[in-house]
Design goal:
With 424 residues, the protein is mainly alpha-helical. Helices cover 61% and strands 1% of the residues. Helix 5 runs parallel beside helix 14 and helix 9 runs antiparallel to helix 18.
Length: 424
């Protein structure tokens, strides 16, 4: 037995030697060294405090320039600083526009702790808008400031088209809240047209989108702010009820009409006569019709939103994975994604995945229904507002739409005296 064991050992050694000569080991001495894994260090906390301090200082400064100095040039200089600091140096983050998603995620996920800097960037512009209008849009927001600088030859947009396109930010805001609250993603940050510009690098589609917005902004005043920005919805609501707002003239309007075409955003209301241009009875019938149809329109839109939310839930990774796992009998392993293949081969029970996906679907459906109802109610309220005739004697800014940029200051021939209060 000992002899047989010795012979077998020698035979195995010989076979290994032959195999080694036949299949030589790969040579890794090519000079290649694998890169070291680098993890970016967290941003120092004092820099976050600096960002909040700079935001507060910029808001106060723009308010002073608008209400005390009535200086369009000063607001323009603050805009350039905002682009340099909040845009290129801070790379557009933290951003008041994107902070909406952090707030939604904080309410949707109790384990997520909202950073204090994000809360400040979300709340401070809204607080200032409640007291002094959209001073954040005037020269602090880098997204609006970069569009303001490229504005060359603004053209007017029809009133009906302006109102129609103005509904897009409401839809965008609702979808962004749904995505963030359910942990699906941050679409505002993902589709921000200027992030690639500020970070000096982006994918080709996003870079093209940013360039397209800037080219459009040469002829249409701030297209992103007016027809896409979801944060502008909240600023407009606060500004509508602001304690005071910038005025076109520091004194009584002299009806010179010089400011009529000054605003590139269509935010100046013209004087209106006391009598409406149609019989009163006709206007009352239209109002009654809107009141009667509003509940039916709201309920129909809520149902459509419920269906839309259920379809939109497929964008969630858990829902998409659950649907693919549910259809695994109809798919081959080659047709499955890597996630579903890994889950399928792991042997884990699909019941938990299905329950989690179903909960996400319910959130999307409920949120979609609420969004549809809110959008329908907003449309009906807009129709009511357009149907009610309001007389007006002076040129006045539309508080919700006015960007407080100060362009109308330059056109008004009435200049404030030492004792005048250039605000209302």
């Amino acid at each position: 037995m000992k002899i047989i064991f010795t012979v077998l050992c020698n035979l195995i050694w010989v076979l290994e030697a032959v195999a080694e000569r036949r299949f030589p080991r790969p040579d890794f001495s090519s000079g290649y060294t694998p890169p070291e894994t680098s993890v970016p260090s967290p941003r120092m906390q004092w820099l976050e405090y600096l960002d909040v301090l700079m935001l507060m200082a910029a808001l106060v400064l723009v308010g002073y320039l608008l209400f005390r100095r009535r200086s369009r040039l000063g607001v323009l200089l603050v805009s350039i600083f905002s682009i340099a600091y909040f845009g290129f140096w801070r790379h557009g983050c933290v951003c008041a526009v994107g902070s909406v998603q952090n707030m939604a995620l904080g309410f949707g996920d109790t384990e997520y702790v909202i950073p204090l800097a994000v809360i400040a960037f979300f709340a401070l512009p809204l607080l200032f808008a409640l007291f002094s209008g959209r001073v954040f849009c005037a020269g602090v927001c880098p997204l609006g400031a970069i569009q303001d600088l490229v504005l060359w030859r603004p053209i007017k947009i029809k009133l009906w088209l302006n109102h129609t396109l103005g509904m897009i930010p409401w839809i965008y805001l609702g979808v962004a809240i749904l995505f963030a609250a359910t942990g699906t993603g941050f679409p505002i940050c993902r589709w921000d047209p200027f992030i690639g510009v500020f970070r000096l690098g982006a994918s080709s589609p996003m870079l093209g989108f940013g360039v397209l917005v800037l080219i459009t902004g040469m002829f249409i005043g701030r297209p992103y702010c007016r027809f896409l920005c979801p944060y502008s919805v909240l600023l407009g609501i606060m500004s509508r009820f602001s304690r005071k707002h910038v005025a076109i003239t520091p004194d009584k309007c002299i009806q010179c009409r010089l400011c009529e075409d000054a605003c590139p955003f269509g935010a100046i209301r013209k004087p209106q006569p006391e009598a409406p241009p149609e019989p009163r009875r006709k206007g009352i019938r239209r109002l009654a019709l809107i009141f009667v149809l509003t509940p039916f329109v709201v309920l129909s839109a809520a149902g459509a939103g419920y269906i839309f939310g259920n379809v939109l839930s497929k964008s969630n990774h858990e829902v998409a994975l659950a649907l693919e796992i549910h259809q695994r009998n109809e798919l081959s392993m080659e047709d499955m994604s890597l996630e579903s293949e890994a889950y399928f081969t792991s042997g884990l029970p699909a019941g938990k995945l299905y329950s989690e996906a179903r909960a996400v679907q319910e959130k999307f459906a409920l949120g979609g229904g609420v969004l549809g109802a809110v959008l329908a109610l907003i449309v009906c309220m807009k129709l009511l507002g357009l149907s009610v005739w309001r007389s007006q004697t002076e040129y006045e800014p539309d508080r919700a739409q006015c960007m407080s940029c100060g362009r109308c200051f330059e056109y008004c021939p009435v200049k404030p005296g030492k004792g005048d209060a250039p605000d209302n």
